[in-house]
Input
Amino acid sequence: NLLNRGDKQSLEKATQHVLEMRKLAPNNVATFEYTVRLANKLGRKEAARKELMNAVPDMSKATALSEQEVQRLGMLASLLIELDDIDSAEKIYRDIAALNPNRIPGLAAFLGTHRSVDQCFEKLNEVYSPERIPALLQVALSVVRKQREKVQDKFDAQIQTWLDTGLRENPDSITLLLQGFG
Output
């Protein structure tokens, strides 16, 4: 990918491609994403952030989100993370989770990666139920693996308890049988 290379020639080519995308599909989500990422690579971080923030809807009056809206907001949050605007990205994740508790594991994953693993596990415990164990374990294991040097084995007992409970509830669950530490 030209943006990942980052050299002058690649960025010039990427600029040409983005300009062409803007002509052909100005309202396409990929066009928007590449425009923001290119601006960031060209050192126009604040302009890219402003463009992103203009695209974030006012969530204060929202009562529900479609799957497409959730995906779009997730993309905006990811771009904000690339721009080192963790606070704005967190607000998006919190807004999504406030409208749909099933999205709290996504917020927990964000918190565990960009804030603290303690905050991640607090959120996961808020929505704990036996039927949610596979989703909770997926987030917990991913975060703990990424942050293993920081957290050591602090959360291993919690994860093991969830795994044991899940296997007691559903001993044939392939998903749970494949989970593990590493």
Remarks:
- The mean pLDDT is 90.
- The two ends are 31 Å apart (CA to CA).
- The chain is about 75% helix and 0% strand.
- Residues 46 and 174 are 46 Å apart (CA to CA).
